[in-house]
């Protein structure tokens, strides 16, 4: 690391630590007092309550993603609509309890809508294109489109059975649950902060992604502004034509803004690199490329039937080389990180709760396969199996232990 | 600290150089102000210091620019990042990250400072700029003034030796501007930072400058020397020139010390504490081709309401809303107990406002007070959540836009939002068609307002003032009796502003009512009959300009501050009042 500043960080670091300690102590005390006043319980439990969130104690965004992936793995093991509903409810409750007021936190609703759309689409496809599921409960029959011989096996229209609809519904719900889990992670973890945790060599890619992500909301804001401005010219503000007419000015504005952001980034030192000896540079290239090749060959070996013997070691070696290459590449970047998120005990617990859901559901798939995949032929009502249902509940842990976001402020104009 | 040696800059698509043979030396720790009319290369000169010109913008730079001994020819902007901090005109275009704290740290991260150093400097900067309460806020949710302070803070954290600012206060209300300038002065005094700044609103900044650079001549001198010859100057200097004070005063305080003689003369001529006419005679206004504004009765509503645009599936039913009981005496604008909410924010509360035909009203108040929201409600871009809005007897948000543009027109903060076409001529043809006016109406207005603009010019290539005038022409094509302008003087130099004032006075004389939302106290003093001050979404003052403005320290123009408690607001009024 290069210290451009010669001042000694020692005393500052110490006072800062002391300050922080003082602050948490104070926060703890007020928390205790409030708790005691509110419930009359002894205050000593107050220190186990989740603290108010600020930047210093924020959960690592990776923890949220691991938690959500755990739920998603759990959802992928079952087609039982009751269990899927339970998983969605768990994710939804945690989001409701712990999301902030930030722009990215509002994406949860969009993901829920997307999930519902997927369910609807799956059912429509099943109705129109038919389904290989045999069934006896015929609901109605659509006129069938006669198709030529070469299109054998494809059917458009025809009879629709309750079994095939139930199957399509279960299948669609599974996909929707996966999407909603991703949406939950998106709402709870700041995507920019997640990218900040990337290794140094990938940092600049991460910044590009962040800038691209701020681009989209700005574009939407532009469209809204220009659409309302059309009213000032006496034109209608709604309709497809209105959006098409403002397309060009919006794109022009977006382009100008991206050039301005690029200028600003450049003027603020984006892309400054340290000089590294050519040998190191070459080693970096060799390690990264070689590592990636090794990963490819290793995965092929694992998947192909005859290569199981060398597949695993090759994959491992490839991964190691790629990681070493990235670390070495990080030397070129002189960047330092401001207040990186720490993977503290609460983060570990949140990640572990997701992993627990995933593991328990995978186990449940082996001891209660019938309950996790309710039959559609013959049509039976799905039941809520006790143990698999209980194994989803650890996913609620973050709603208790994650730091509480501060009371929502009214966003100013 | 900064040296320009015979520097000329030529952009690729222009025939003549934007900067020509500039020689300049700025010593360390000085605050240098760049003044000059629009388009003389102020931004180019600033960009040359940070290396963005020509590394980023293209073009050819001849001569040599060195900053602290580093030649910008061999040092691209990122290699100067530890030395020069740059803040552009639009703070939103400056931000790379999404929260305040990350933004402050971004530059330091790029330079590779140690985490402990970064932490300490972020805390210091948060305090210095009063941003501590906003540290975790997403930048998109901040007001304009707050964003400007974050932008300045984000370059301060790297402790640059040179700070380059392009119009840092043009988007800010008077008190937010003073906050920003106070910070700059503190940097110059306490840290010895060299500041190079371009600003049109000289009345705000000239007293802070150690030196002033006048472009395009490239003359560097003390503020008093330059102001004596500069074609652009703040009102206090104009007053000093009028009264023949030597040396010229640059601050209200200087002027007030010398003003005794002038006050006596004024009192002798006009009688003690006499009132000047609230709005001076518009003077020789060019004959406007403006068709007489349509009268407020709904009889002239010819076009069929309801037909929106082609493919709209979910078109709302527009109810033509003639209001019973709006006689000819009813005010043009009648707002009663208007409330507007956005989510949980009450943007406006219990607003009452009446505007009569021919009246000019200035809406003032700090950033985010609700001025733009009120204007939007008047043109129906926002539906009120409570109360009523009537403009010429119509309910704006429930009226077909094609009908409404003949009643009220708004020139938005960014005039570009109003312009879609590729050329000025196309824009005019479209405006005629939109308004149902005779072909050529808009063209005639453009010729009046912006003489000498070729019809084939792209609206983007116009200067700020010309673009504003084009947008105004487009709005006036429909001859609305009510014209609204949102922050019209942003980015305008004094000459363009003077032209705007003449035009608006002409419109008012022709019977148009004008409402302008502005931070520019001098503009309000020159134009407005009445000033309405909005704070926290409520009207806190409403009265004749002289009464409201003279009593307010933030909104008083310089002349009023010098001559208080006498009621003169502008140099023009003083000139008229003096007997010769």
From TrEMBL, chain A:
Write the record's keywords in alphabetical order, separated by commas.
Membrane, Transmembrane, Transmembrane helix
**Matching InterPro entries:** ABC/ECF_trnsptr_transmembrane (IPR003339)
**What ranges does the record give for the region Disordered, renumbered to this chain?**
1-41
Q: What is its main location?
A: membrane
Give residue spans, biased composition: Basic and acidic residues: 14-23
Q: Which Pfam families match?
A: CbiQ
Q: Where are the transmembrane segments?
A: 64-96, 108-129, 201-224, 285-304, 310-328, 348-366
Q: Which GO terms describe its cellular component?
A: plasma membrane
**Keyword Membrane (UniProt):** yes
Membrane disposition: Multi-pass membrane protein
Give compartment(s): Membrane
Q: PANTHER family annotated for this entry?
A: COBALT TRANSPORT PROTEIN, PROTEIN ABCI12, CHLOROPLASTIC
What this protein is called in its record is: Cobalt ABC transporter permease
From TrEMBL, chain B:
**What are the protein's GO molecular function terms?**
ATP binding; ATP hydrolysis activity; ATPase-coupled transmembrane transporter activity
Q: Where in the cell is it found?
A: Cell membrane
Record membrane topology: Peripheral membrane protein
GO cellular component terms given for this protein: ATP-binding cassette (ABC) transporter complex
> What Pfam families does this protein's entry cite?
ABC_tran
Q: Which family is annotated?
A: Belongs to the ABC transporter superfamily.
Protein name per the record: ABC transporter ATP-binding protein
